[in-house]
Amino acid sequence: MPSSKAALLSKIKNAKASVKVAPKQQEQVSSEEKKKPVKVTQNQVPKKEDKKRKLEVQEEEEEEDVQLMGADDIDLDDFSDEDDMGDNDEFDEELEDDDFFTKKKPTTTSSTKSNKQQPTKKRKQEEDEDDEDDDEEEEQVNKKKKKVFSEENFFENDEDEDDDFSEYTEEERKRLEQLSGMERERLAQIEEESRLEMADDATRQEKPTVMANYLEDHEELPEAGEDQDIGIAGVTEDLTKIHERIQENLAVLANFKDLREDGFTREDYLNLLKTDLSLYYGYNSELIDVFASMFSLPELIEFLEANEKPRPLTIRSNILKTRRRELAQNLINRGINLDPLDKWSKAGLKIYDANVPVGATPEYLAGHYMLQGASSFLPVMALAPKENEKVIDMAAAPGGKTTYLSALMKNTGVIFANDVNVDRTKALIANIHRMGCRNCIVANYDGRDMPQILPTKVDRVLLDAPCTGLGVISRDPSIKSQKGKKDIELLCKLQRELILAAIDCVDADSETGGYIVYSTCSVSVDENEAVVNYALKKRHVKIVPTGLQFGTPGFIKIGERHFDPSLKLTMRYFPHVHNMDGFYVCKLKKLKNGKKLSEEEQVREEKNEQRIQKDKSDEKNRRIRDQKDREDKNKKLLEEAIKLANGNEQAGIELFQKRKEELSLSRKKFKTNKRSEDKFRPIHERKKSGNRKQKGENMNYV
Ligand SMILES: C[S@@+](CC[C@H](N)C(=O)[O-])C[C@H]1O[C@@H](n2cnc3c(N)ncnc32)[C@H](O)[C@@H]1O
């Protein structure tokens, strides 16, 4: 340490002493109290013994909790499926002798709760480690401090001095008393300056050197959206190093003003971060861009991390064939370790582990359940079809949602289960049969054509649209590298066309329904909010609440893009927030049949309508005029005929009628001649003469 700094610190010690402890107070402190351990300040670590005791108490309490909630004592009412059964009397009656109430689940179930126990142990271990860390840290801090002050040779024998300045030698106290107020102020100022200087030193020492380190190993910084070689040409750096750089970069971006390295912009750091994220997690740069535009940086990391872990395995019990508690019991007997899915579902079961393949049990083959991700329940619950309704599942294969719709409708009404992919309709048909659904008609059309094909409008439509699958990356990691902006673009065009078709299939005047649910298993805004926003502009629909108990509201603003405020009624589900597949659910109510036009289209349409009306009235006036002309002509002819009959009215009328017949005959002859001539003339000329003929007819008509 430079000697000037040592001198400065020595002054500070004196100043601290003078400011902190007034001589009078000092006298009041008994010698015994002086020997007491220094009081614990905010930054100090609590004593190990206290911490240990606290942990023991905490652990005892948690053990009690775990015992109370132990696997053997699971409340079997949790398996009730009454809600989903609706008012179906057959299922509503309680099973009085249901041994589910008395039987305990096999002890293997305890692993279902081991999640609850684990944290306690883990926490204790962590706390112990923390304790050790804290102690080590404390020791190190003390060592450092001792070192600093021993350099000053000031309080070198006083181990506690830097924790508290309450103990001073007689000599020091005398010196303190001699200090004038001004000196104290001056020294306080010096202390402050020195403190700032030291803080600055510390910051400088801790400042991460992300960019400098990167440029030591690389020729230049990565450009925005640049994909780095990974796998094929070999990973350019080891992942640990990339991970460390990600952490440091995040720290810099979180405190950019203080931690940035000179000469680098925020954008440089962001580009490097995105490149590192795509290398570390194995995404193409386009997808990282898509996600980075949706989440804050810490949330982006959480999302990417969540995609690395599997989601819980869930099944949906089929109330057309069984009750959930019955199914649960049967599966437990087969060694499957499960629990009710959650409060919000009366049909779902969460599987922890199984000794048998869950997709091949006799119960599965008999259609007692469907293997289905928890988030796939949600669009069907939002659509909430009623018994005896007409419903379309526009993109239905392999039928997870169709079969749920069928169960909620208790096999009544009709479901048009459609899918454009003929191979996938085979799986759809198989599932419909296995699950005992008798109200489904399977169709194989492009959903966009359905409004024209279906003979009738329906009460509700589910459009579980084809999408990029950006919400189910943990199930299919190939999405990370294989999907990009082009896929999003193509799919959102199809999604827009499908959503309009779905709306056009619904009867706005349906007495029980008039609803459309749009869902995807993608998290991208383009495939979700942007599609619904488009539909709001094109059709007479409004967004209504989904009726789902949880979820994150849809985006109404992202970057520069703004959507209709009602989009906050739509629901999003994220792997890192809800521990389920990423999903989007929007419920629409159809207000009026027909298209909704843009302002420009409306003006055009109105002008067109006015023109049609004008044409109609012109035609009417022309007819009246023609009629009047004919009457005038006839009157003139009759007068001429009477004149020719020398005033004999009767003879004049006869002459007039004869003349009319002659005119009529000559007109017929003219027509026939024209037609036979026409046969030998080219079509375009015939048309022309036809036009002329019409005009001529009008002129000759009497
Ligand atoms: C997300 S999957 C549907 C999953 C299904 N709803 C379920 O729960 O089992 C999307 C489906 O849309 C189908 N599809 C794609 N384009 C379509 C179109 N133009 N019309 C109808 N279906 C389409 C795909 O074949 C695919 O089966």
TrEMBL record:
Gene Ontology biological-process entries: maturation of LSU-rRNA; rRNA base methylation
Residues noted as binding S-adenosyl-L-methionine in the record, renumbered to the chain: 395-401, 419, 446, 464
InterPro entries on file: MeTrfase_RsmB-F_NOP2_cat, MeTrfase_RsmB-F_NOP2_dom, Nop2p, RCMT, RCMT_NOP2, RsmB/NOL1/NOP2-like_CS, SAM-dependent_MTases_sf
Start-end of Basic and acidic residues biased regions: 46-57, 171-180, 674-683
Active site, per annotation: 521
Biased amino acid composition, Acidic residues: 58-99, 127-139, 153-170
GO molecular function terms attached to this record: RNA binding; rRNA (cytosine-C5-)-methyltransferase activity
Name under which the protein is recorded: Proliferating-cell nucleolar antigen p120
Family designation: Belongs to the class I-like SAM-binding methyltransferase superfamily. RsmB/NOP family.
Keywords, comma-separated and alphabetical: Methyltransferase, Nucleus, Ribosome biogenesis, RNA-binding, S-adenosyl-L-methionine, Transferase
Annotated source species: Naegleria gruberi
Keyword flag Membrane: no
Skewed-composition ranges (Basic residues): 684-693
Low complexity: compositionally biased ranges: 107-118
Gene3D superfamilies on file: Sun protein, domain 3, Vaccinia Virus protein VP39
